[in-house]
Amino acid sequence: MTLLKVDAIETFIEQYHILQGVSFEVTEGDITVLFGRNGAGKTTTLRSIMGLNPASKGQILFKDERIDQTPTHLISRKGIGYVPEDQGVFFDLTVGENMKLAIRKNDSEAMGRQEWVLELFPDLKTFWYRKSGLLSGGQKQMLAIARAYVNDNELLLIDEPSKGLAPIMVEKVMQAIEQMKSKTTVLLVEQNFFMASMIGNRFYIMDEGRIVHHGQMQELKDDQESRQKYLGIA
Ligand SMILES: Nc1ncnc2c1ncn2[C@@H]1O[C@H](COP(=O)(O)OP(=O)(O)OP(=O)(O)O)[C@@H](O)[C@H]1O
Asked: Is the CB of 205 under 6 A from ligand 1?
């Protein structure tokens, strides 16, 4: 089932025409990966879905319902969690306080989800009372993902979780996202092709505000020419 359908969206930031007709679909239960060089428009696409940089043309449908005219807080309440590139973590608060603030509905289900995600990221349990600003980059990333996960979100938009992390941390974060697949659908923006291709089902490649290539992840793994052409990697 198609959970999210982005249909020919165009987004301007000030006078700049950033997204120039972006279309793609996210299937329920999948990890869909959005690749592309720096400045291709990946972050803007996630921000348009969340209504932070609203699209001025085209449509965005979540579970067959239009959300492109909906304010951000209502989009998030419909069940879309967003983990921005800058992580959205409050550095002056402890890990525990950050988690508490993130929870929309403090019920047993949320507690169950919190328990599950703390098993997945035991570092967060260890540093529960520590100020988040003191965590390592990878731990901050884990906290950001955990904050989005504790709510009953059907879709998580995760922006470049590997950015600035040591390889071992990248692997940990990717493995955690893969484990989340059994519980939620993920739209992942990632530059680390090797890692993302291990966990992704489908891919879309963006360039200059457009989707220029898409398919099953296995096809891209087998297609060195496309990887070279669109991503500049062998
Ligand atoms: N506030 C802004 N004002 C003007 N231009 C912007 C603004 N934010 C983004 N852009 C431009 O929009 C384009 C797309 O940026 P975006 O952040 O969506 O790319 P990206 O694919 O996520 O890149 P990266 O991988 O570097 O994060 C870039 O050319 C960028 O310079």
From this structure: no
